[in-house]
Amino acid sequence: MAVLAFLLPGFLALLLLCIGLRTQPVVVDYNISLYSPQLQMASIIWLAPASCFYEAWLMNTPNPTLANRSTSVIAIEVDPSDANNTLFQAQKRYSVPRCNPLYPEPPDTNNFVYQVGPDLDSLDFASVISVAAGKHYRIRLSLHSGANSIVGVTNWSAPIQTRALPLSARDMGAWLEGRSGGMVVITVILSISMLLLLVGLGFAFGSSQR
Predict the structure, then answer these.
(1) For residue 161, is it within any domain?
(2) What is the pLDDT of residues 33-70, one digit of tens each?
(3) What is the pLDDT of residue 7?
(4) Domain, as residue range, for 90
(5) Angle, vertex CA 36, rays to CA 25 and CA 72, nearest 5
(6) Residues 6+ positions from 38 with CB-CB distance below 8 Å
(7) Residue 110 lies in a domain
(8) What is the dihedral of CA 53, 56, 61, 66, to 10 degrees?
């Protein structure tokens, strides 16, 4: 009995430690970055996809079996500067992107960019707020397992400020530079086609007037 009384506290402490390791999300040192620093909007924050976030979690978690890549999702939590410590979240969640950009599997088009706003839900879905112009927001990512439990989170980002004024033509040009080459080519082809169509209509109309 004396031996049991001696070992019992240590066993309970180890059990509590194991439970804590299973229930507490692992904090991952991960850099959250904007999709394009030049694309600063008043009501939406565009983030770069969370490439390699899942792999970073795997290297830090004591139990990698808690979350499978194919069934896990990434959520975006938001801490507004004027919300009295009330946390919110983006209304859309994203599948886990591949870490290797050369992976042969076709990419998920929904993972090209993460959208924060224009509306945000509170974590308990009890209220909704809108992303406001000229305000600061801190952001972190959370990894949810297939059972919808949070198994990993990033550190909070530095405050990100939304634009106070409407997007100017110069900023729109900078945004176009960040678009994919395919989209730019399509836009140019459509513009040229429209120009040729107008020229053709002009010639046809001029010939009919003779």
Answers:
(1) yes
(2) 999 888 889 999 999 999 999 999 999 999 999 999 99
(3) 46
(4) 20-166
(5) 30
(6) 171, 174, 175, 177, 178
(7) yes
(8) 40
Range list of β-strands (E), 96-208: 114-116, 119-122, 128-130, 136-144, 150-154, 160-161
pLDDT of 112: 81
Structural element, H or E, at residue 37: none
Tokens of 73: 């999702």
Q: Do residues 74 and 93 make contact, with C-beta atoms less than 8 angstroms apart?
A: yes
Q: What is the tally of structural domains in the chain?
A: 1
Cis omega (within 30 of 0) for bond into 118:
yes
194 phi and psi angles, rounded to 5 deg: -65, -40
Q: Measured between alpha carbons, how far is residue 197 from residues 48, 53, 184, 194, 209 in Å?
A: 38, 48, 20, 5, 19
Q: Is 50 exceeded by the pLDDT of residue 190?
A: yes
Phi-psi domain of 34 (left: phi exceeds 0; alpha: psi -120 through 50; beta: other): beta
Placement of tokens 């997007």 in the chain: 167
Residue 181 belongs to some domain of the structure: no
Residue 156: other Cβ atoms inside 10 A: 13
Type of residue at 130: S
CB of 134 within 8 A of CB of 161? yes
Residue that has been written with the tokens 């509170």 in this structure: 122
Q: Does residue 4 lie in a domain region?
A: no
Structure tokens at 121: 């839900």
Is 60 exceeded by the pLDDT of residue 102? Answer: no
**CA-CA distance, 178 to 184, in Å (whole number)?**
10
